[in-house]
Amino acid sequence: MSVQCCVFYDIFPAIYGLRETTATDALALSAKVQSCLLRCAFFALHCLPAFRIKEMVVIQIPAAALKGTAVYAAARAANTCGVSMKRVFLWILGGATVLAVAAAVLLSRVDAGFVVRQIADATAKATGQPLTFDSPPGISFFPPGVNFGQAHWGSASDGQGVVISVKSGMAQLELSPLLTGNVVVREVRLNSPMIEVREGKAVAAAKPDAEKPAAETKPAASTPPALPIELKRLVLRQGVVTYTSANGKTLRVDDVNFSVENLRTGQEAVVQCDFAFIFGDSVVESAVPAATPGANSISGTLAFSSRLRYAPPQLLFRQTALTVTPLSGALPKEAGPLQFTCEGSLRLSDLHLQLSKALLNTPQARVSASGEGGLAPMAFNGALEMEGSPHKLAALAGHKLATPSAKDDLRFRTMVRYTANALNLSQMLLQLDDLSMRGGLRLDLPENAPMLVTADVQTGMLNLDPYLPQAESGKNATETKPAGHDGAAAGNKRAKPDAEAARRMPGLDIRAKVAGITKGGLQVKDIALAIKGEKGRYALTSLTASLGSGGLIKSTGSMDMATETCALKAQAADVEVGPLLVALGKGRLADGQASLDADITMKCADASDIRQSLGGRGLLEIRRLHVPAMAELSKSIPALTGKGGPLPDRFDLARAPFTARDGEINASPITVTSATLNAAGKARISLPKQYLDAALDIKTMGLTIPVTAKGPLSDISYGVDPRFALDMAKNLPGALLKTGKEAGSTTKDAAKGAEGLVRGILGR
Fold first, then answer.
1. Domain end position, chosen among 74, 108, 142
2. How far is residue 106's CA from residue 346's CA, in Å, rounded to a whole number?
């Protein structure tokens, strides 16, 4: 015996597949129930009028193959009644239509208000505040879900809280997983959501309740659970997020677009997000839901994408990219776009981070890192590398280098170890063009005390010329001159020192050795210094260096940031005057070996303060002084040439003790001695006014020659006292009238030697 079945080409496979599926399903009917349903269907169909089908296929199935199945039993019953399989499938199709109509009728009878109340109650139970709808949402069964309009959640009281609103949205669930008790969200869409977070002073100042017993603190679960729901797609469009801190700082995020796809346990989800942001002290609201940046704000755009896989207890991330494009504010446009990429994993049980690679790219530099650490508490242990362009980084800081290095190469690498109370950089290696630096840096970060900076570094020879800002000249220099360049004005405008802020300044324990520093022709070598102090009071415990032109420098000093005062004790020995003047660009106007012993104090907030407040005392001595211009002076004035020969141009000792007060330096008495010449005089230098007034009486061969120097430090006038010229005119009218011009010129040249020496010592 065989069972003959007549079916449609497309309907039979679909029904057969469905029957096979439901047969293995946990909720599948038993064989007896299926047989009963099929028998009822066949008998009912037998009583219906015949239907005509154009295309049919006849399948011959051996009866033995179906013996014992519900299909076999139903076929026997159908054969008994003379019913064809054609009518079976038509009846099933009609039943499906009836079910669809019944579902539509049932849907129209659903109480939307009841559904809204259930949603509100469930939300309030879970979050403490209900979810409310301006209008009843629409309910659907195929697929099961809800469509809603304006909705609100949360509230703000006493200037703090969270408020969320959405213009419209929808949520859909998968039907088939519901039959097995699983919740799979097909799609959630939220249009124009607005999230406002305000942090009140009470929240900011809140501290953990110390009275709570320790037993109430529940330890974190060792293994995070699987996701309570599965989400195929979540989409947020054109959202706005605003966060206001307790101190009034505001972060505003506009035009937020966010999406998540395939959020399932053990599978890889795709996350994308982009928005515009404004961060600063304040945000100025406009009539529309937008904002404009304040005076001290930063605005720009941000784009984020990542592939995430949640496999408890690990959250794996790869192809993670964060791109920030600054548009205005403290961070200039030239700084972007900044792109950060990373790959790694996060263990959620203890928030342990494994960072396989992380990379930050900017138009000026490239920074990479790898290692491991934690997020609670913050910790990291790994490697850090950086490479970039010095002249591009300087331009970003607003400085245009005068003569950028041809290499234009910056490289830095170090091992990083960070904990909640310390940052340690070890095995540091810095390569700046031809300069190399090695050493270590440690930042101690105690919870209730200022930071302590400890460093020990060694560097090679540094040439400053390629890294100095380009000097402004002419009109531009005048226009860009700082408003506080004038000392008095700057002093009036600058805020008073804050003693409390000074006490919070970091402690320092720094040791450095520098092979040398070069600027122009000036070179300082073998520099070794040590700085130590805390709470705004720092001491230069030692500073030693040698001049490339010859000479040794030693110094100690101190700085008090609370009063903005500095003290310096400096000694210089065996300083070669001639090479030093050449290095300073003054020419070789004099030679000799100088020594300096100075003890000075000053206000050291800026250069203007130094000029106005310099005080103290010191002694300048020059041995074996040689001034070539003195020989020209005697040639121009024959009366100065006697039996002893022309005026000497070499002197045994030049000595100038000086005192300083409020930027006024007085040197007196200035003495110069040699075998045939003695000179004495005095000088006054006004640093606030940048003015020199000096007089020196040269005694030789029975004559006293008064030499004067006066005028601004930028344009000093030199000459001989007019009274001396009148006396000389009485005795040597012809010689003086003939050579007076040359005499004045050579006297000026002689005095320039002193000018060069003074300017060289003062650093001008």
1. 108
2. 48
